[in-house]
Specification:
The protein has 188 residues and is α/β, with parallel strands linked by helices. The protein has five helices and six strands, in the order H-E-E-H-E-H-E-H-E-E-H. It has a six-stranded mixed sheet.
């Protein structure tokens, strides 16, 4: 009985150490998203700031009226993502409020029929592209949803935000409008 106790105690400590290492990795990635890194806001998610944004391919579900030469906020969402559904009112309000300053485009992963349903909730100011297989998100290095990438008039990535809310999207829009042609801003 005594040896069984020590074996289980040793196994318990191995599990605690593994969980602790996992937490450190998760916190490091969270800090990269929020505080920044040499490559930009996140080394893992989204294209590097200052790089040319990849093209977006997929089935155009809804195309809002667009003006040329506007910066673009590209939101990556998925029909299976509950936080994405909860962000719909904020994205709709943002797109309506910032319609003259930036174009709002949602790249939504999932079956095209469900993406059409999702797009119907967003409103007329938002363009939506269906990405059934997630290929567009993969080419943009977006592995979490919702995620927003700000692209200036020249197609250069100027900022990115994980789990964007109205305020974050507005700040991203201001960065795009005010900083067109500037070097990407980085966290200190």
């Amino acid at each position: 009985m005594n040896s069984l106790l020590w074996i289980s105690y040793g196994i318990l400590w191995v599990v605690v150490l593994l969980l602790g290492a996992g937490m450190i990795v998760m916190l490091r990635e969270h800090a990269d998203l929020m505080l920044g890194s040499r490559e930009g806001r996140s080394r893992v998610h989204g294209p590097p700031e200052g790089a040319t944004a990849p093209g977006l391919e997929g089935e155009e579900v809804v195309l809002a009226a667009t003006a040329t030469e506007r910066p673009r906020v590209v939101l990556f969402m998925a029909v299976t993502c509950d936080p994405c559904w909860r962000r719909i009112p904020q994205v709709s309000h943002f797109a309506a409020d910032q319609a003259e300053a930036v174009e709002t485009l949602v790249c939504c992963s999932g079956p095209v029929e469900r993406v059409r349903e999702f797009a119907g909730e967003l409103g007329p100011e938002v363009s939506v592209i269906a990405d059934p297989a997630g290929d567009a998100a993969g080419s943009w290095r977006v592995y979490m949803t919702p995620f927003a990438v700000g692209v200036d008039r020249d197609g250069i990535v100027r900022g990115k935000v994980a789990n964007p809310a109205y305020d974050n999207l507005t700040l991203l829009s201001r960065l795009l409008v005010a900083g067109a042609g500037d070097e990407p801003t980085r966290a200190a």
